[in-house]
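Pasting as-is:
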Amino acid sequence: MTDNNDYLRTGDRTFRLRADVFLLMMKGAGYAAVFTIGVGLFIWVLYGVGLLLPDEAREADDPTPFSAYEAPVADTLRV
């Protein structure tokens, strides 16, 4: 019987490279998860603040009336 107790195969030359790459991928996935959850929480908080507003505030006119202006259409496109 052999005394091979190398269950993690650390004696393999490519083990360290595979482990480092795997851990870097998991670190990146963790950063992506934190960012995604953070954006979701930010949107949820904005939604909650919007629900706290009275109905009159939701039905009010646009406070920037210049955003409703449209550019005039040129008549040179007619054939």
